[in-house]
Backbone:
């Protein structure tokens, strides 16, 4: 399923809404999650999962082609942990 | 760095502000978005949200695990796990936003 298919499903269930409003609604939800993580916040959606930010320490990396050392700065990466309910449903429980 | 935790309520509040539906309807829409994503994943489908990320289902084979406390062997059944791969845009935004 891709974004447009998700939007279509929601639009089909809500015939009283304009398609463009459904698009805005779906986009707002994803943007809000990304914005929260960009601020360093967590988004916890019980039963579904939690989005959080993990810190990766600075390290000395290596250019795999030349073997040369390169300093890699500390950085923050997005992380998702599946919620219990969804994990159980995926496994037929 | 922020340390707030947002919930469904914050997402529906954002929908409420953005589209001007009732709070109740906004909350229901957030719920149906999560429900549709979950249903697709339960069916084993991949969910790809452009500029956000991709949720995929991976099959893990059965293996023999061990109770770390007792050392006892326990069979681990084959199972399905969910992985989320953030888009480049999300990675970039999260990296930039949390830079010191």
Residues:
């Amino acid at each position: 399923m891709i974004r447009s298919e998700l939007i279509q499903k929601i639009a089909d269930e809500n015939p009283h809404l304009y398609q463009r409003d459904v698009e805005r609604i779906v986009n707002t939800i994803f943007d809000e999650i990304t914005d929260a993580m960009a601020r360093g916040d967590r988004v916890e959606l019980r039963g579904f999962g939690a989005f959080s930010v993990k810190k990766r320490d600075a390290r000395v990396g290596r250019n795999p082609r030349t073997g040369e050392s390169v300093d890699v700065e500390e950085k923050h990466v997005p992380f998702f942990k599946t919620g219990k309910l969804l994990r159980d449903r995926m496994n037929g429980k | 760095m922020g340390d707030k935790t947002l919930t469904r309520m914050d997402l529906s509040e954002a929908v409420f502000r953005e589209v001007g539906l009732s709070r109740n309807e906004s909350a229901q829409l957030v719920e149906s978005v999560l429900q549709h994503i979950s249903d697709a994943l339960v069916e084993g489908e991949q969910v790809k949200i452009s500029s956000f990320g991709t949720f995929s289902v991976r099959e893990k084979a059965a293996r023999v695990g061990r109770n770390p406390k007792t050392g006892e062997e326990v069979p681990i059944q084959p199972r399905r796990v969910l992985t989320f791969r953030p888009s480049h845009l999300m990675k970039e935004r999260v990296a930039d936003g949390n830079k010191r």
